Amino acid sequence: MDMKINFLPAKTWNWLRMNETEVKQVKADRQALEKEEIPETFAVEASTLEPIKTGMGPDMDKLAEQSGFAAKVYRMPAGIKEAAALRLGFVCKDQTASLDLIDLIAEENSEMTVVMDYASDADAEGLCSVRTRVKVGKGALLRLVQIDCLGKGFRVLNDVGSICEDQGRIEMVHIFLGGGKIYQGCQTELLGNESSLQSDIGYLLQDDQRLDMNYVALHEGKRTNSEINASGVLKDASSKLFRGTIDFQHGSAESVGAEKEDVLLMGDDVVNQTIPLILCAEEDVKGSHGASIGQLDEETLFYMQARGISEEQAYALMADARIEAVCQKIPDETAQKLVKAYLGGDAADECEKNS
To answer: SUF system FeS cluster assembly SufBD core domain spans which residues (predicted)?
Structure first.
């Protein structure tokens, strides 16, 4: 099917071509989930959640329905706080198109951590699609880490939708390193009072990689809080489109939302597009957004060169530092090592070995 995804909640000028994205000839002929490490406290089910809106939009649900694949549900029972992470490894094969449907449920006053990584051979080509739906109960905490280590010949559709009840917390870390064309959608509904979202995004794009993102934080309950931080590097002829929306809906009084982006440009042919958006239907709220986009400033570069560091080395160090800063927010040492192995060389092979 041909899909339209990543809709901007409030449209801008059509000539900018940022209101939505078209993805052609999407299909699914297999599932890629091959590796599971499931702590004993998790319950694994075959049932599905009630419909949850995701960042990509309804076409992802249509794809799921057409595929005939069932969602796999991982549930943390009420009151259980599990320190060990649930690990899900998706191994994508050359010349295949996969779709995996994952539902995560953290019941009242529980805590759970989920690490999902996507891997393939370095020279493999294909399509990797994953839809993840999340429900966080009252007073619960869910940490979700998703790491893209795919080969540069893959198209990637990574879609997330989540809802959060009273005093529930969602902490997400997304790291994009592999894939050729990467499409990321993420929408979180802060339904309950004093619920919160912390979202950290890191990316390193090289050659002609393209990353298309749509992040939406919907504030519905009172005294809700959201923070969306994106930090990345664009090299060579790579490109990135970031849509970041904070939506204060009626009834979300005393809520706070913040969005920040930091982009390092390391090539004359890179393309960087950013469209921050704050929507407001409530008076007593605070929303902010900011962006730092550009090359290394001359003062920093001079400081490094005075200490024997070349311009090329200086940029490499700063690029690694941005990814490292996001990596440090991953609440799992094994997942941190996975990212560092990819950056250190042997790329997808290392990712597949460690997933």
So the answer is: 97-321
Query: In terms of pLDDT, which residue wins out, 138 or 348?
Result: 138
Task: Look up tokens 């969306």; give the residue.
Answer: 228
Angle value at C-alpha 230, between 321 and 5, nearest 5 degrees: 135
305/204: higher pLDDT: 204
| Percent helix / strand / coil, the chain, rounded to 5 | 15, 50, 35
210 three-state secondary structure: strand
Taking the C-alpha atoms of residue 304 and residue 313, their distance in angstroms, rounded to an integer, is 9
pLDDT one-digit tens code per residue, 113-122? 999 999 999 8
Report the side by side order of strands in the sheet with 125-136.
Answer: 43-45, 72-76, 96-106, 125-136, 153-164, 181-190, 210-219, 239-248, 271-280
Q: Considering the entire predicted model, what is its pTM?
A: 0.92
pLDDT value at 346 more than 60: no
Phi/psi for 73 (5° steps) reads -110, 130
Q: Is 227 exposed, middle or buried (0-12, 13-18, 19+ CB in 10 A)?
A: middle
The three-state secondary structure class of 30 is: strand
**Integer CA distances (angstroms), 323 to 8, 106, 204, 264, 304, in order:** 26, 28, 7, 11, 19
User: What is the chain's mean pLDDT, rounded?
Assistant: 91
Two structure tokens written together for 203: 């990316």
CA distances from 39 to 8, 42, 87, 116, 353 (A): 38, 6, 9, 15, 21
**Percent of the chain residues topping a pLDDT of 70:** 95
**Amino acid, res. 130:** V
> Helix (H, G, I), strand (E, B), or coil: what is residue 319?
helix
Instruction: Give CA–CA dist 97/107, Å, rounded.
Output: 33
- For the record, the structure tokens of 271 come out as 């393309």
> What is the DSSP secondary-structure string of 55-67?
SS-HHHHHHHHHH
